[in-house]
Write a structure and sequence with these properties.
The protein has 227 residues and is an alpha+beta fold. The relative contact order is 0.09. It is elongated. It folds into two domains: 92 residues, DNA polymerase, domain 1 (Orthogonal Bundle), CATH 1.10.150; 116 residues, Cytidine Deaminase, domain 2, CATH 3.40.140.10. The chain has a five-stranded mixed beta sheet, sandwiched between helices. The longest helix has 19 residues. The protein has nine helices and five strands, in the order H-H-H-H-H-H-H-E-E-H-E-H-E-E. Helix 2 packs across helix 3. 43% of the residues lie in helices and 15% in strands.
């Protein structure tokens, strides 16, 4: 019986682990990354073949990530232990993707950083949700102010600035989502922002920005000089 091909039959500089060390994880294909997660194949089948079978069976990494333990372990070479390893790897990635980065309050004058902070809270809603980020010299807080209909937020300056005052904010950033996927501000968004800026001036609380999140895009009032 012919000997099964293994990773060790490859030249050293073509092995996934060595390639990751030399070139970084982004240089590896999906199949190579799966090989590293699986570790080794089974009798008569190399880990490269097993990894390719997984991708062929489920069609994409997204569908593979959604597969159940039972579906994964039905593939030859994938027992319960390896199925659990795959599920754990995807879950780590999912948690990282939804975990907001940690910033100092002074960094949140940068629209890109505000977007990174707030996007996981806003991008998948089917109604408009309005948030306030209250900033002072030491820290910041994030609070949801209102939930609107499919096309509009229901926001009143009283509720918005109550959060700012409670948190002793010197300035604020507003953020809401557009379920339509288009981040461009509506006429209502422009009017609301103008009203909130005027209310902030009366209270001595500066409005630094208003960010509209739409899936993987955003619009910054500050960046477009609309404040």
């Amino acid at each position: 019986m012919a000997k099964s091909f293994t990773i060790h039959d490859l030249p050293e500089d073509e092995r996934p682990r060595e390639r990751l060390v030399q070139f970084g994880e982004q240089a590896l294909s999906a199949q190579e990354l799966l090989q590293l997660i699986l570790g080794q194949g089974v009798a008569g089948e190399s880990v490269a073949v097993t990894a390719q079978k997984l991708l062929s069976r489920f069609g994409s990494l997204q569908q593979l990530s959604e597969a159940s333990i039972e579906e994964l372990s039905s593939i030859k070479g994938i027992g319960l232990a390896k199925a659990a390893q795959i599920k754990a790897a995807f879950e780590i990635g999912r948690r990282l993707s939804t975990q907001a980065p940690v910033y100092k309050s002074k960094e949140l004058t940068d629209p890109e950083k505000v977007y990174r902070l707030i996007k996981s809270k806003l991008k998948d809603y089917h109604k408009e949700h309005f948030y306030i980020i209250a900033l002072n010299s030491r820290n910041y807080s994030i609070a949801e102010v209102s939930v609107g209909s499919l096309n509009a937020s229901i926001v009143h300056p009283r509720e918005v600035f109550a959060e700012a005052i409670k948190n002793k904010a010197a300035s604020v950033v507003f953020a809401h989502n557009h379920p339509s996927g288009d981040p461009e501000p509506s006429e209502d968004d422009l009017l609301l922002t103008k009203k909130l800026v005027e209310s902030g001036k009366i209270l001595g609380i500066e409005v630094d920005d208003h960010i509209i999140v739409a899936k993987d895009k955003f619009f910054s009032f500050k960046k477009h000089k609309l404040l």
